[in-house]
Amino acid sequence: MKRIYFTVTNDLTYDQRMHRICHSLASAGFDVVLAGRIRPGSLPLEEKRFRQKRIRCWFNKGKLFYAEYNIRLFFFLLFKRMDGICAIDLDTILPCLYISRLKRIPRVYDAHELFTELKEVISRPGIHRFWLGIEQWAVPCFKWGYTVSESIAEEFHRRYGVEYKTIRNVPVLQPLGAKPAGEKFIVYQGAVNEARGFEYLIPAMKWVNARLVICGDGNFMESLKKLLAEYQLQDKVELKGMLSPAALWTIAQQAHIGVAVPEKEGLNQYLALPNKFFDYVHAGLPQVTVDYPEYRKMNKKYEVAVLIDNLAPKRIADALNNLLEDDVLHNRLRQNCLKARESIHWQEEEKKLVSFYKTLFAL
């Protein structure tokens, strides 16, 4: 049985994508270990089909955290038996590269995003140079890899000549409950980070005839609270914080519209196809989102969203209000979601993942 180690910097609890990946590979006969970190407020880990390990650090953010965690991760991995190793994003790529060389085992790069093109990275020149240097040095050393959208895979090929697969971050297909009658509210679920468009979405809510429920947390949360106070929208926008996957699923099914308005600044946002797009589809939830290449490609095929061509608050508000008031449009998009979820789901996507690792170890 081949043993694979996966490495992340989060505390594992809310990482649905890694839970799906590790569960699928464990079910396919691999011995899987997922390594992350433990934080002061971390919840106890749930029992899974794969093993989980969390590393404790003195520092929990900033440069000192990344330095400490990478050193601790390296020594943790050094004394473990493994047949392959997978780095999740750039922040764990160096320990995985060194360990794979020392142990002479296959290494895989799983790019959840185009890390060096995140707004919070490119807006800080020193930080950007640092991570870009790591990317330029390390990624060409990873012949094997996969990412979440065809556009990001193409960008990696353009930069480094690597041929990465596309394995989309789609939910497991599960039964959908009956749509409850009641309040028509809008939901945002996912990271509350820079470049997610909250500077435009929050002002837009002045004109929207519904509440917004935000499920998630991140580096923009304090700024988000200031925006709510500035526009006096504390009673119209509810902050739920981090929720379990089950709680997220319940709220999504109760909502009327999903929303995601990532900024164009930062090539990652422009090329990505994030999990929330598919989460809304699986909940039968029409969404308002942006007219970027991957969204456009999916919507052309399935028509599950209203795409907007700019992030002006009035434009966002008009799109949300139109979808709130136009029952014919809403129903058409909802029915399309219900059809699309039958073909876009993890039970199909995981076949590509399992095939990838079987091919890797066969070679």
What descriptive keywords fit this protein?
2 domains, 13 strands, globular, alpha/beta, Rossmann fold, 363 residues, 6-stranded parallel beta sheet, 16% strand
Describe this structure as you would to a colleague.
The protein is α/β, with parallel strands linked by helices and 363 residues long. The chain has 2 domains: 184 residues, 3-Layer(aba) Sandwich (Rossmann fold), CATH 3.40.50.2000; 155 residues, Glycogen Phosphorylase B (Rossmann fold), CATH 3.40.50.2000. 45% of the residues lie in helices and 16% in strands. The strands form 2 sheets. A 7-stranded parallel sheet has the order 3-2-1-4-5-6-7, sandwiched between helices. Strands 10-9-8-11-12-13 form a 6-stranded parallel sheet, with helices on both faces. β6, α6 and β7 form a beta-alpha-beta unit. α1 crosses α15.
